Structure prediction request, 310 residues.
Amino acid sequence: MALVEQKYLEASDARLSEATPGDFIQLLKPRVMSLVVFTAFVGMAVAPGSLNPLIALISILAIAVGAGASGALNMWYDADIDAVMSRTARRPVPSGKVMPGEALAFGMILSVFAVLTLGLMANWLAGGLLAFTIFFYAVVYTMWLKRSTPQNIVIGGAAGALPPVIGWAAVTGTVTPESIVLFLIIFLWTPPHFWALALFKTGDYGRAGIPMLPNVAGEAHTRKQIFVYAVLVAAAGVAPAVMGFASLSYGAIALTLGAGFVWYSFGVLRMDPSDRQMRPAKALFGYSLVYLFAIFAALLCDALLAGLGS
Prediction:
């Protein structure tokens, strides 16, 4: 708590910067935001029923703003560790382009705006889920889990897995087993995705004092965990077809994509410890990005084709 209080004092005492609009856009983590928007949109498209197109558009924008707000709050709090990691040192707060107080205020204002907009325009279940997602990412994950446990990504991954559930709830006003499956696909995908990154960024996480699994349990244990989660991801990806809310054609695509995920993970499992370039881990990291986009794109196409055929 002392660290939180210190950060609030630093934020309130900070001078105003000369940040450009582009710097504030970077605070929103636009690449992460794009994934959130896409998966939330797929949740809307797959859900039974429909929304007025204008309300659907406003709902998606509110979810995007909420995701960006989470990113801004994360960058505000994590500026100290971002400054010592090569992949994050140029972010707006550690680079000095945006002052901590500005990032905090920006994130808080956007959070309130996003939640109220989604609640008023769609329904309060969707708005409440968005509020919970922002809280979970900014407080539970960023302020607590990330610095305290090697299971940070496993538990914290819930925040990134909720957007399709929010999209589903915006349309239906409910959370159903089908929407939970969409959640599980991303939730189970998150650990192998980030642990693959952690394998070839171990030094960065070590310098920042973040207890990522390779730093705490070692590379061999991490490789085994990656493979286990890859099998679970592959199974979850096929589940929509098994449960009947996606077609057998989707199931075949998901099975193929899942087999690729398991194959790349098997390469990490068998990786030569002397390979300091970590080529299999880098290959898995790249494929995992393709997998998540492709599996949700397949769900979207399947839903659109089903709509045309009905």
